[in-house]
Specification:
Number of strands: 2
Strand content: 15-25%
Order of helices and strands: HEEH
Structural class: alpha+beta
Distance between the termini: 35 Å
Strand order of the largest sheet: 1-2
Number of domains: 1
Length: about 50
């Protein structure tokens, strides 16, 4: 894993990600954790526009 500061993490994230901050660490994670749901949402967004 890369070591990023909070500022670097915020600059690095994509639209579908969150920065999770705890006293011990800073993590980047997807808003939707289920890969199948993410794929479904992506397909819906693709055909909606």
């Amino acid at each position: 894993p890369k070591k990023l500061s909070l500022d670097q993490s915020i600059e690095f994230i994509a639209e579908d990600e969150l920065v999770e901050v705890t006293p011990d660490s800073i993590r980047l994670r997807k808003m939707e954790l289920d890969a199948n749901k993410r794929a479904s949402d992506h397909r819906k967004a693709k055909y909606a526009s």
